[in-house]
Write a structure and sequence with these properties.
Helix content: 40-55%
Distance between the termini: 32 Å
Radius of gyration: 18 Å
Largest sheet: 8 strands, parallel
CATH class: Alpha Beta
Number of helices: 12
Number of strands: 8
CATH topology: TIM Barrel
CATH superfamily: Aldolase class I
Strand order of the largest sheet: 7-6-5-4-3-2-1-8
Shape: globular
Number of domains: 1
Structural class: alpha/beta
Length: 301
């Protein structure tokens, strides 16, 4: 897909599918395909294969390619498929190139391994990923990759294929400054969580990435629609009854942003499975707790 055509598709909910594993921690590709078929019954605008919720950092390059191929096969051009790349420059380039051959429509660049890189090094890292393919590129600002407005402007100027920016910090003041400085050169995406969708949309954003779409795509889509209209009265019960309790549980332990999603998927008849170390699975008593929580989600499933 042409980068500018890809950009036009970003309006609404972008889903981050999990990567299901079997009990022995091998890939469960059949489960992934079933999850995707269920997800694509709903009008999401794109999917990210093997992203953060998809445990990208736990996959080998060969496994990442398997996940990409399975996702592309199920999507059948119904929605754009992007995949995440990162680790280091050379590996990110190879991952992007093999994904392009497999048929993805775009690339999502994660931060490099080094948390204290100079701006010059970061520019070179993202520029190399941008040159690796002719596909549209989105940069994911998360963890230690904290950018100021001038650096984002430099990236936008030096990478012709860069079409979108995904914020993963939830710092609305910083994001507002960046958006104001760079303007319409990039498509702006809210990416720090479903619970922050109303805050992002208050900045004028109309696209956000959702991990809750794994469990309840209808809920994610309602969050988008209500936030787009600034319908605070409509948003309040969704946040109170579904989103905030889910995110409260996710905040209990490191890595639970994936573990909780997978456990809840298993409870609603989808395929989550265990997480790979160093992430940890829910404790037995927490599974019982999330079962009680999920019992109240039936209207959204």
């Amino acid at each position: 897909m042409d980068p500018h055509e890809l950009r036009k598709q970003f309006n609404g909910v972008i889903a981050f599918p999990v990567t299901p594993f079997n009990p022995d921690l091998s890939l469960n590709l059949a489960g992934l395909q079933k999850n995707l078929e269920h997800l694509l019954e709903y009008p999401i605008c794109a999917v990210i294969a093997a992203g953060g919720t998809g445990e990208m950092y736990s996959l080998t390059p060969a496994e990442q390619l398997q996940v990409v191929r399975a996702t592309v096969a199920v999507a059948r051009r119904r929605v754009p498929v992007l995949t995440a790349v990162g680790f280091n420059q050379q590996l990110a380039v190879e991952m992007a190139q093999q994904a392009a051959v497999a048929g993805v429509d775009g690339i999502l660049a994660f931060p490099p391994y080094y948390p204290n890189a100079e701006t010059e090094g970061l520019l070179a890292y993202y520029q190399a990923i941008g040159k690796a393919t002719a596909l549209g590129l989105a940069i994911y600002a998360r963890d230690w990759a904290v950018f100021n407005a001038d650096t984002v402007a430099q990236l936008a100027k030096s990478i012709p294929t860069l079409v979108a920016w995904k914020d993963g910090h939830g710092d609305m003041r910083r994001y507002q400054l960046i958006m104001d400085h760079v303007g319409e050169r990039l498509h702006w995406i809210g990416g720090a969580g479903d619970d922050l969708a109303p805050s992002y949309y208050g900045l004028g954003i109309r696209t956000y990435t959702s991990s809750l779409a794994n469990i309840a795509p209808q809920l994610s889509l309602q969050l988008h629609e209500l936030a787009s209209r600034n319908d605070t009265a409509g948003l309040a019960p969704l946040l109170r009854n579904y989103v905030i309790p889910h995110y409260d549980m996710r905040a209990r332990r490191k890595g639970y942003e994936v573990s909780v999603v997978k456990a809840q998927m298993d409870l609603v008849g989808l395929h989550g499975g265990p997480v790979r170390p160093p992430l940890v699975n829910l404790r037995a008593e927490e599974v019982d707790e999330i079962r009680r929580l999920t019992d109240g989600w039936r209207a959204m499933l």
